Amino acid sequence: MTQPLPPDLHLRAATAADEAQVRALLPQLADFPIPPRRRAEQLWTCDAELARTVLAGGASASFLDVLATASGEVAGLILVTLRAEMLANTPSAHLEAIVVHPDHRGRGLGKWLMAHCEARVRARGAASLTLHVFDRNERAKALYVGQGYDLEIVRAVKWLD
Predict the structure, then answer these.
(1) Disulfide: which of 4, 26, 54, 68 matches 44 by Cβ 3.0-4.6 Å?
(2) Which of 37, 10, 3 is nearest to 161 (CA)?
(3) pLDDT tens profile 119-134
(4) 66-72 long-range CB contacts below 8 Å, 24 or more apart?
(5) Cβ–Cβ < 8 Å for 132, 35
(6) Strand locations in the chain, DSSP E?
(7) Is residue 119 part of a domain?
(8) Does the residue 84 lie in any domain?
């Protein structure tokens, strides 16, 4: 890992008991100037459904890990799916969501979660880790580029109605 985990937090697999806190954190995925014609909930509702499926044991190719306080507060999370890389069709993983609770930002937890994610998927045979990020999400882009990610694909949308 890039740095030790702060002593007031521990990493663990999410459990069904975490579902309400996970669902409460996921709207943070829209905490940036979202593009016109998008609604904030469009940026996180699919992740909420995947999280629910993972917590119910119905997504064997996905996992959800949380950083938690001693009292059980979820301070951050990663939601990941193992799948083939889109272009090379090689073993890969996709970071569906990474969220750090606003009260815990500025502590390096995003970097820590990214390093944990990379190590975990590497151990499961992934040769790469992909993610999607909105161009307007400067905070997320800075984290990813700072961790060595190449922003290689631009997705363009033209609304036809």
Answers:
(1) 26
(2) 37
(3) 999 999 999 999 999 9
(4) 66/11, 66/12, 66/13, 66/14, 66/18, 66/22, 67/5, 67/9, 67/10, 67/11, 67/104, 67/109, 67/112, 67/113, 68/9, 68/10, 68/11, 68/12, 68/18, 69/8, 69/9, 70/8, 70/10, 72/17
(5) no
(6) 9-13, 62-69, 74-84, 91-100, 129-131
(7) yes
(8) yes
Tens-place pLDDT, residues 3-45: 789 999 999 999 999 999 999 999 999 999 999 999 999 999 9
Pairing of strands 74-84, 129-131: unpaired
Expressed as residue numbers, the domain containing 36 is: 9-146
Tell me the β-bridge partners of 66.
12, 77
Q: Which two tokens stand for residue 143?
A: 């984290």
Residue 2 included in any domain: no
Strand 91-100 versus strand 129-131 pairing type? parallel
CATH label of the domain that carries residue 15: 3.40.630.30
Give a yes or no: residue 129 inside a domain.
yes
Q: Quote the pTM value.
A: 0.95
Number of domains in the chain: 1
Q: Give 89's contacts (C-beta < 8 A, 6+ positions apart).
A: none
Those residues whose C-beta lies under 8 Å from the C-beta of residue 115, and which sit 6 or more positions away, are: 1, 2, 147
